[in-house]
Write a structure and sequence with these properties.
Number of domains: 2
Order of helices and strands: EHEHEHEHEHEHEHEHEHEEEEEEEEHE
CATH class of the largest domain: Alpha Beta
InterPro entries: Ala_racemase, Ala_racemase_N, PLP-binding_barrel
Largest sheet: 8 strands, mixed
Pfam families: Ala_racemase_N (PF01168)
Structural class: alpha/beta
Strand content: 15-25%
Distance between the termini: 21 Å
Shape: elongated
CATH architecture of the largest domain: Alpha-Beta Barrel
Radius of gyration: 23 Å
Helix content: 25-40%
Number of strands: 18
Cofactor: pyridoxal 5'-phosphate
GO molecular function: alanine racemase activity; pyridoxal phosphate binding
GO cellular component, one term: cytosol
CATH superfamily of the largest domain: Alanine racemase
Length: 369
């Protein structure tokens, strides 16, 4: 099989999903599986569904359209505020969207009327991370206006933390979201069907607190896909961290001096990475680059050290490993590296599962599309 490629273990993804679903169920929290890091892969989505998620979410409406056209019938949520230029596609592809702007709500209402349907809205609250969200003082008034717009239905409130500024989702933040939900519901006819507490960064709070208040949903991506929590990037007990493996092929092996020679300026991507002071290096070059993966997000096999990466070449010190041209080396990935590898049209995606897969339509970013 060609390289570079991303090997995806769907069984591991199902295991991680079911483990988290089972741990959160006693808390009264259901899980929306987030597929955005995998470009809305129907295979990955199906693995999450087998693990027990009740709905799927993605930040790109094109990915949601891909999921819908693959035959997936569960509720789909657009987890980024809709662009005005895409409201018709949003209403057509997503059952629910996260919103913060009145002008966008007006446009969604008009789109829903044109399509003779009803679109559900979750209004997002700003709780300190300074990404999307309406100020707490304004949230009740905006939420209560959603249902006055034809074609729209207020589904609930939500928030997002730990993405822009790393603000930790804790009891104080979640209690505030619960309090705001109760304020919205004091008006007759505004019963909320979802109070979405956030993302994988919420897991420590959710699994260690005795009272989750009104929070009844989490949107989980990184924890399901990589088995890690985003606050400190630590593995989560009982989850698999090997669902994704990047495989790259060796195209050169040579013993080379540890230090370059000649006048030194910037390398292709800025400052040259440090190298050993003296001696020689058993160096290999792999056919993968920054176009394909984030160099800061890959972990080579033990005993192999990454020396640098340009657009299309990864240079490593192979140490005592016996490596030849044509051999393949495997790398672990963090979330940033996974997103870029999935996005690169030059990285083949190879999903492995003993279970049947859903039909996969071409994605707009696929080279063959």
């Amino acid at each position: 099989m060609t390289a570079p490629r991303l090997e995806i273990d769907l069984v591991a993804i199902t295991h991680n999903t079911s483990t988290l679903v089972d741990r959160l169920r006693p808390k009264g929290i259901r899980v929306t599986g987030v597929s955005k890091a995998t470009l809305g892969s129907p295979g990955v989505a199906a693995a999450m569904l087998r693990g027990g998620v009740t709905s799927l979410g993605d930040s790109r409406v094109e990915n949601l359209a891909r999921l819908r056209s693959s035959g997936i019938a569960v509720p789909l949520t657009l987890i980024r505020s809709p662009m005005l230029s895409q409201v018709d596609l949003v209403v057509r592809s997503a059952d629910v969207s996260l919103n913060t702007e009145a002008v966008v709500l007006d446009a969604l209402s008009a789109a829903a009327i044109r399509q003779h349907t009803t679109h559900a809205v979750v209004v997002m609250v700003e709780l300190g991370d300074l990404r999307e969200g309406v100020a707490a003082a304004d949230i009740v008034d905006l939420a209560r206006t959603v249902g006055r717009r034809p074609g729209l239905r207020l589904a609930g409130l939500g928030t997002n933390l730990a993405c822009q500024c790393g603000v930790v989702p804790d009891k104080r933040k979640m209690d505030e979201l619960s309090r705001l939900a109760e304020q919205v519901e004091r008006t007759p006819g505004h019963k909320l069907s979802v109070v979405s507490g956030g993302n994988s960064a919420n897991l420590n709070w959710a699994l260690t607190t005795d009272d989750v208040g009104r929070i009844d949903e989490l949107r989980l991506g990184e924890s399901i896909l990589l088995g890690t929590e985003p606050l400190h990037r630590r593995p989560i007990d009982g989850l698999r961290t090997d669902a994704f493996t990047l495989v790259a092929e060796v195209i050169e092996t040579k013993a080379k001096p540890a230090q370059p020679w000649g006048e030194i300026a910037q390398a292709a991507y800025g400052v040259q990475p440090p190298r050993r002071d003296t001696g020689t290096v058993r160096q290999a070059i792999l056919a993968v680059g920054r176009q394909d993966v984030d160099p800061d997000g890959i972990t080579p096999p033990p005993g192999i050290v990454a020396l640098g990466m340009s657009s299309d070449h990864l240079v490593v010190d192979v140490g005592d490993h016996g490596v030849s041209v044509g051999d393949e080396l495997t790398f672990r990935l963090d979330y940033s590296a996974l997103v870029r590898a999935m996005t690169s049209p030059f990285v083949t995606k190879a999903e492995r599962s003993a279970l049947p897969r859903v039909r996969e339509p071409a994605h707009p970013l696929d080279a063959s599309a």
